[in-house]
Amino acid sequence: MLMADELSRLAQARRALARTTGSHGAAEALYVAQPHNRFYLTGFSGSSGYVLLTQRRAILFTDFRYVEQAEKQAPGYEIVRHGTPYLDTIRDTVGELGLRSIAFEADHLTVAEHAKLVAAVPGVDWIASTGVVEGLRTHKDAAEIRRIEQAVACSDEAFARLVQEGRIRAGATETEVAAHLEHHMRLLGADKPAFDTIVASGPRSSLPHGRASERVIQEGDFVTLDFGAVVGGYCSDITRTVMVGRASSQQRELYQLVLSAQLQGVAAVRPGATGREVDAVSRDIITAAGHGERFGHGLGHGIGLAVHEAPRLSPVSESVLEPGMVFSVEPGVYVPGWGGVRIEDLVVVTGEGCRVLTKTAKELIELR
Predict the structure, then answer these.
(1) Which of 213, 327, 339, 362 counts the most CB atoms within 10 A of its CB?
(2) Do residues 10 and 84 make contact, with C-beta atoms less than 8 angstroms apart?
(3) Please, what CATH class does the domain formed by 142-367 belong to?
């Protein structure tokens, strides 16, 4: 029997399907293969599976390895064990159902996979659709927000332990710091890191996505750490920049600039605002200080089952913010050859503004 959340998602997916049209009118079915979308609809976490959703039927195809798991994780779905090749089983099912038009995920199906699908299941109008499930995933329900909060708490506590143990210090390598951080997240209940941990020190902190290297951290370095945990399939994402030793006046000034931009960006989040408008609040502060060209990425991105999803906060984003959306607010300034600062929190939009999910303090930490 489906739980309330899964029932709601199926109902919403079916309504979205009814709005997807092709040459024969509304699509009769939706074919889902993208792993995050499949998990969102079914709760099935195996590595191989395909969903065929109609207005009356909900079918999950998987192979021998995952049948038992699928029956437990997706109890409201008809579990069909597919053969080899799997497309033969899908063709037979499509024929049994008499389907003439099926929407597929154009954003995720490669040209080669699409060609195989059309060849294996002929006589069907395959309708290229975009964002059918992703649009539903943009608004998190209470259960999803709880899972994100659990992932955030895991990241927060791992960072606190890292600092308490003195792991971020002169003489340590970036990879050592990353390893200790990921170890703590695992011990605290993370399924895995949400992405490759970023630890960028000294001049490497000017690299927005500077994955941990063998560089040895030095006294007087900024160290930017960008990391996250996956708990129950949902991600967290946090960035903190700390100081090894005493900060110079230039370092302190840059840090305070980014912190001000981050705090004002968070304060600007509210229902009805666009991603572009919120981005501009932080960006204008950094630009006024003469660093506009050194803030080259968007202010934030949605997070959930994927670490980067809708909505976006950027100079070109017209996404309208609504309650239940969860995303990052993460301005940064990067000075090539010298270093950089980024500060990132996750927030959830509420009826009046937003609630900050990240609990780690943002004042500059000087590690001595």
Answers:
(1) 327
(2) no
(3) alpha beta
